[in-house]
Amino acid sequence: MIHFFSLLKEFYYPALQHGFYSKQHRKAGLFLTLLYLLFRAKFSNEREVTVRLFGFEITANSPQTLLRLIKEIFLEQVYLFQTTNPSPRIIDGGANIGISVLYFKSLYPKAHITAIEPNPTAFFYLEKNIALNALSDVEAVPACLSDLKGKERFYVSPSGDIINGSLYPEIGISYLQEVESVCLSDYLAEGEVNLVKLDVEGAERQVYQDLKMSGNLAQSQQYLIEYHAVEGLPDIDSEMVDYFEQHGFYSLSKKSSSSYMDSQNRLLHFAQQERVVSAL
Predict the structure, then answer these.
(1) Which of 44, 108, 226, 280 is most buried by a 10 A CB count?
(2) Helix crossing, 204-214 with 237-246: angle to 10°?
(3) Which residues, 6+ apart, have CB-to-CB distance to 77 below 8 Å?
(4) Which residues make beta-bridge pairs with 139?
(5) Which residues lie closer than 8 Å to 26 by C-beta, 6 or more apart?
(6) How does pLDDT run across 161-196, given as a tens digit for each residue?
(7) Residues 181, 144: contact at Cβ < 8 Å?
């Protein structure tokens, strides 16, 4: 549970570094919004919440879920990337409730984004956040990424946490339902992509196989991949890095996130050798 002083240290002061809060009158609004989320997280965490942060109207199934995603995506900026394209094409695999979509739109307002999310509850909020902010050029796809098109079994946390849904019971634990599965390679075949972001809770293994079989790896200039190391699942971390490097990509260092400090999970960032791209 987040307390008042951690709210200041981990949320308020870091948020002040964001350009949106450079104006004095917005700082008070930020402080009051964070206090409201703290209060709701403590006394009414199981109910939907809607607030305004970073210039966006944002809704989530619970205050704690929203705070966790805001911290990782907007404050720690784990998905920060650079491109010279003012309207980049982005494939967001595992978009969850859409905080990553809002973040990419804050970086590149003219971005064209395909947001793919299999969890029905998360997808509901993804569509809602797109509509609340009248986002253009965003396609929401209710499906999971895999190496075959069709159906996959989908598992979720018995606690109701919508962040960790997975194709693997080792991660999701409780079976929910079958979901549609699509292949990243099909989206890459439609034309050049500036960024593929993957947070698919273990299914990066299937996506990796799909990329190898299709030969479409080079269709994206950059990849941001959250690699989930899970006991019982094959460890392909080194193999993936070698494969990308053998096919003209190099690794970009990313600043650490609290999300990875207590686990073996890693954030991998690859860019093509011939593209001049730097990570901040």
Answers:
(1) 226
(2) 30
(3) 103, 255, 280
(4) 114
(5) 20
(6) 899 899 999 998 899 899 999 999 999 999 999 999
(7) yes
